[in-house]
Sequence to fold (456 residues):
Amino acid sequence: MAGKPSIPSGTRDFGPEEVAKRQYIIDTIKQVYHRYGFQPLETPVMENLSTLLGKYGDEGDKLVYRILNSGDFLKKATDTDLQERNIAQLAGVVSEKGLRYDLTVPFARYVVMHQHELSFPFRRYQIQPVWRADRPQKGRYREFYQCDADVIGSNSLLLDAELILMIRDVFEQLRMNVTLRINNRKILDGLAHYADCREQFNELVTTLDKADKIGMEGVQKELTTIGLNEEQINKITDYLGFRGDNKQKLHYLENILQNDIGRQGLEELWELKDRVAEYWSNHVEVEIDLSLARGLSYYTGTIYEAVSRDVQMGSILGGGRYDNLTGIFGLPNMSGVGISFGLDRIYDILNELNLYPATILRSSDVLFIPFDLTCEKAALHYADEFRHNGLRVEVYPDVDTKLGKKFKYADGKGIHFAIMIGEEEFKGGYLTLKNLQTGEQMKTSQKEAIDRIKSS
Fold:
């Protein structure tokens, strides 16, 4: 006897109602992307590991799903590697491809491969699934969708400002209350200079990126582990512990940032704040967050992260500026900036808050109910006309089923109208329209029925 089927941990099935909800989020995001001139792009599910590895930092590389080579994937492995279980060596031998970890690195690879076909600055959006070998928990999945928008080919802060306006537009339309946290990776460079730990910069960024999870005590412990002394740790914890409004934080940074890169990051934050100050929204609060680091190693400038103010969950949006991501593929000096909405976490939050419009859950506008086979042919003809008038229509297929069961079917699918066709309707050339919400029933012409359903 076969066992009960299951799906891998960290993945989910989505039925019709769930797909309709997710499509509502995707459509909302797409509409905003289109209004800002972004064009759609898709890349393969898998990439060469040479494309993926080394772009996300050591922690990110560990989460890349590898795909075994076809056929005899062990043919290049040596007996010594197999006997000694040399995993690092074996991984590079048995696998040359991996599932994409994000959409930004494949985008950079695409730009390099198609650079002579594109007009720069190039604006693209991409909504596809990605995979990470992470530990599943609330709001964290091994397969999830990202909804990316990137502009590449300009280092203008105008683009950073426009991305913030796009973030505002999406969350306003979804009626979500969020805090948008912003920082600048150059400021973190300035912090490393201030704390005299530039040699440990990558480890510092990795630690700061976990500050929300491990707390100040955990940060201090990790900083000790990477070799920082008490004076260095005190400077960093003072930085993380500073409290104030956005302007006070910027003035605090003016006092501690001394190197050129850190000062440049501060100037960019000031300019970005001034550019978007008049566009703040009730749904989107903007906060300069000194602890924000974004662990991906390709970020070089402004970084973004958004969290819900109503539901406790991780970030629902991330992004930032990258000045030379294409350089690792042979196309240097191509600055870009992008954001990515996390579809799955937004979906979970909207579910918890019940923020979906009721109309998206209605699969059909009207159900035709023929009473015999002759009327079934008439119903098929009428349904075709209704569909050509933009309505979503079903014809109930089993004429012998009791009427009450047919109404129950319509109710279960959220269908608000039924049209019944029996011998009387067929001979008289009219339709019997029933509003399943109010119980009102009337005899109508085809045109009147269409108009009533459309205006409901």
Remarks:
- The two ends are 52 Å apart (CA to CA).
- The domain at 16-64+101-353 is CATH 3.30.930.10 (BirA Bifunctional Protein; domain 2).
- The longest strand covers residues 122-131.
